[in-house]
Amino acid sequence: MEARLLLEDGTRLEGQAFGAKTEKLGEVVFSTGMTGYQEVLTDPSCCGQMVIMTYPLIGNRGINRHDFESKQSFIHGLIVREHATSPNYWRNEQSLDCWLKEGGIPGIAGVDTRMLTRKIRAFGTLKGVLSTTGAPWDVLAEKLEAGSVMRDQVARVSTRTIHFSPGSGPRVVLMDFGAKYGIRRELTRRGCDVVAVPWDTSAEEIKHLGPDGILLSNGPGNPKDVPGAIATVGILLKQYRLFGIGLGHQLFALAAGADTEKMRFGHRGSNHPVKDLQSGRIHITSQNHGYTVRTDSLDQTDLTLTHIALNDGTCEGLAHKHLPAFSVQYHPEAAPGPHDSGELFDRFLKLLNLNREGMARA
């Protein structure tokens, strides 16, 4: 079956269809990791996007429950050079094709993903429509012109109820803006008592949960689309120890008076070098974001730049000058990716334990 991909700059691509028989509109982005396609596809930060996998062969490991980063995929399309129809992996439970069909997600294979990636790098992220239904180009053009990229992604991917993961250590309230399972895994393996709450939970409601600290999770979209969350973070920042990841990093920055902006094509993949400005160490990191904190907006705030991306010099980490709060733009829980930065969870835990010890002495 034929699949068609139409981009807003007029680019037309035809290829082999796989996944669901449907039509979807979304933001077309690329991910540069050589491995971990399942984790990428189940990362809530990809909500509403059509993901180009730059590694040419996708699907050879199939799909298994062990590698999920959320309960489902929120992407609107998958674009690959070659789709493996016969996966070979000891954990494989079903093919990528079957899994995409179940999720209502279309895929297109047999296209020049290198050309697409170079186009996005040159001109920026593009809106696109992907069809596996055989719809003619003029119909797709009408849908592309009439459609708009969603702005309510956080509400779509966040938990709707409070979830408890009991532990004997410090209590961490995880504000779920689209949290990957990896974040909760890193906290629970360190003994933390984790309480995940919906993205729009108020500061007063969080106070009643008695946290030792707050973790602001990753998530999709523009941080300025959730102004209520920014206001809540501003209140929590003055009361609790705080750690922000991904979108949580951007919300922390906005709450502290900094500004954010959309990047030309963002950072997505498991091989991005980041420099720690305090130690001078270089970390290879996993990333998935299309917005960044403007470094020129930090001058009038109490924030210090702690990490930068070596590829383009953008902000990758912040720390508050007077409050026990810090954040990183990348994913220290990886999945997929290297574990260079897992120590950041240890740093957060140390802050929480110092707080508990101080309260016990008082």
From TrEMBL:
For L-glutamine, which residues are the binding ones?
Answer: S45, G219, G221, L247, Q250, N288, G290, Y291
- What Enzyme Commission number(s) appear in the record? 6.3.5.5
Its top-level enzyme class, in one word, is ligase
Q: Which organism is it from?
A: Kroppenstedtia guangzhouensis
- For whether the record's keyword set contains Membrane, the answer is no
Purpose of the protein: Small subunit of the glutamine-dependent carbamoyl phosphate synthetase (CPSase). CPSase catalyzes the formation of carbamoyl phosphate from the ammonia moiety of glutamine, carbonate, and phosphate donated by ATP, constituting the first step of 2 biosynthetic pathways, one leading to arginine and/or urea and the other to pyrimidine nucleotides. The small subunit (glutamine amidotransferase) binds and cleaves glutamine to supply the large subunit with the substrate ammonia.
> What InterPro entries is this protein classified in?
Anth_synth/Amidotransfase, CarbamoylP_synth_ssu, CarbamoylP_synth_ssu_N, CarbP_synth_ssu_N_sf, Class_I_gatase-like, CPSase_GATase1, GATASE
- Classify the source by domain of life: Bacteria
Full protein name: Carbamoyl phosphate synthase small chain
Coiled-coil region(s) at which residues?
Answer: none
Identify its protein family. Belongs to the CarA family.
Which pathway does the record list? Pyrimidine metabolism; UMP biosynthesis via de novo pathway; (S)-dihydroorotate from bicarbonate: step 1/3; Amino-acid biosynthesis; L-arginine biosynthesis; carbamoyl phosphate from bicarbonate: step 1/1
Q: Which residues form the active site?
A: H331, E333
Q: Report residue spans for region: CPSase.
A: 1-170
Query: Which keywords are on file for this protein?
Result: Amino-acid biosynthesis, Arginine biosynthesis, ATP-binding, Glutamine amidotransferase, Ligase, Nucleotide-binding, Pyrimidine biosynthesis
Q: Name the reaction it catalyses.
A: L-glutamine + H2O = L-glutamate + NH4(+); hydrogencarbonate + L-glutamine + 2 ATP + H2O = carbamoyl phosphate + L-glutamate + 2 ADP + phosphate + 2 H(+)
The residues covered by the Carbamoyl-phosphate synthase small subunit N-terminal domain are 1-131
